[in-house]
Amino acid sequence: MTRLSRITVGPAVCHGSPCIRGMRYPVELIVDLLASGMTSELVLADYADLELDDILAALEFAANVTRTRSVSPISAA
């Protein structure tokens, strides 16, 4: 089983957003928590049913998405 197999997508869970193992934890939530400064340890403490490989899978998924989509750079306002 690869880490990315932990990411699931289904119309009945979070409106089809990529989630962790079919649970209602969208990849976006995990990445946002880490981006806000939370450590993996803090995320795991707050979400006891998650595992470190879930967090790593979310990061790998996000990295793959940013590699495959054309995104314009964010400019300073």
Written account of the structure:
The mean pLDDT is 90. The chain has a two-stranded antiparallel sheet with strand order 1-2. The chain is globular and about 35 Å long. It has helices at residues 27-35, 40-46, 52-68, and strands at 7-8, 19-20. The protein has three helices and two strands, in the order ββααα. It has a single domain, classed as Orthogonal Bundle (Arc Repressor Mutant, subunit A), CATH 1.10.10. The protein is mainly alpha-helical and 77 residues long.
Key terms for this structure?
globular, 77 residues, 2 strands, 3 helices, mainly alpha, two-stranded antiparallel ribbon, single chain, 43% helix, Arc Repressor Mutant, subunit A
In short:
The chain is mainly α. Helix content is 43%, strand content 5%.
Kindly provide the radius of gyration, computed on alpha-carbon positions and rounded to a whole number of angstroms: 13 Å
Q: So how many helices?
A: 3
Residue ranges: pLDDT <50 for 5 or more in a row?
none
Helix content: 40-55%
Strand proportion, as a percent range, falls in: 5-15%
Q: Which fold name corresponds to the CATH topology? A: Arc Repressor Mutant, subunit A
Distance between the termini: 44 Å
Global mean pLDDT:
90
Q: Secondary-structure element sequence?
A: EEHHH
Largest sheet: 2 strands, antiparallel
Q: Could you name the CATH homologous superfamily?
A: Winged helix-like DNA-binding domain superfamily/Winged helix DNA-binding domain
CATH class: Mainly Alpha
How many domains? The number is 1
Number of strands: 2
Overall SS class: mainly alpha
Shape: globular
What CATH architecture label applies?
Orthogonal Bundle
Task: Record the strand order, biggest sheet.
Answer: 1-2
